[in-house]
């Protein structure tokens, strides 16, 4: 049942609103002023608050601010006398869902409450989904190299520093980029990924910067590039060591000036993007061989995070395997299988040239092919 709190210093208004809402089947509580309302909201969870603007002790605008700072997801509908409509409009600018005037129109009140409840439900679903995604992108391990990776992520996530993530294929570089984004100030904005190795060199500039209609054969319509799509958020340039030199020059300019120009266009478009890059190559060697721009390297590598190969942190294999067993069981809707101690020892003895990605594939194969308890013999047969 939806839970609503009415915060108003006029007892008659509280009683009238309560009668209407309880008749509609809502669970309703009251607070006689902003101070009491704040205390109740902090101690409990309410889907919607009907809140007066002018109240003693703490007024509606201040209450709205304090509840927002506390991270509560309560949707505020401001209840305002005609003379306070400007304040109510100001409240919506500060995050209130809507406002209604006194005395409230019954139909308007009920429609507004229903819409606010729908917003509250969507906010809760988004919060739950974000937690689920965060768990999926969790970096698992307690080895010294992984602890260092986690510590660095925690230090740099809240900054705007550009990050270069290095490490072999399958080691989890993409996971690091996602963790930085999700822990940073841009978490509510888009994370746009580009695999530079998967895009032909002649198309990479169009992919990154977009193009105008008619810019080249086949450009039948205007296209918005990844930089514009990521505006306000994070752009993850995976395998940047495979990017063409001409595209590197344009990326460098975009990072220097925070502006891009679409292919075939002459209009400069301002963008606000945090760039995280990743590569499995030794970029200093690529620079020496003339394949990568040194000035771009220095722009990208304000912070460098090296993700170790799985062979360098074999003590994490048991933890990773347990997580994959749980993830795969969830995907299949099946009970979680177990690894025997000899199975873990057998897994730790393997070379893992494909790193964490290979381990995940092996665990999925074992789940499919083996019984409830996976043994060392199973690993020897199917790994």
Please summarize what this structure is.
With 383 residues, the protein is of the alpha/beta class. It has helices at residues 11-23, 34-43, 60-69, 85-93, 106-136, 144-156, 173-183, 204-209, 226-229, 245-257, 283-288, 294-300, 317-332, 341-348, 355-369, 376-382; strands spanning 3-7, 27-31, 48-52, 75-80, 98-101, 163-166, 191-195, 234-238, 259-261, 268-270, 274-279, 303-306, 338-339, 373-374. α6 packs parallel to α7, α13 crosses α15 and α14 (341-348) packs parallel to α16.
The CATH class of the largest domain is identified as: Alpha Beta
Low-confidence residue ranges: none
Mean pLDDT figure: 90
Approximately how much helix is present in the residues?
Answer: 40-55%
Number of domains: 3
What strand line-up does the widest sheet have?
2-1-3-4-5
Main beta sheet: strand number and arrangement? 5 strands, parallel
Which structural class do you get from the secondary structure elements? alpha/beta
Gap between N and C termini: 50 Å
- Shape field: globular
- Into which percentage range does the β-strand content fall? 15-25%
Architecture of the largest domain in CATH? 3-Layer(aba) Sandwich
Can you say what the CATH homologous superfamily of the largest domain is? P-loop containing nucleotide triphosphate hydrolases
**Helix segment tally:** 16
The overall strand count is 14
What name does CATH use for the topology of the largest domain? Answer: Rossmann fold
What gyration radius follows from the Cα positions, in whole Å? 27 Å
Pfam family, one: Response_reg
Protein name: Response regulator
Organism: Rudanella paleaurantiibacter
Keywords: ATP-binding, Nucleotide-binding, Phosphoprotein
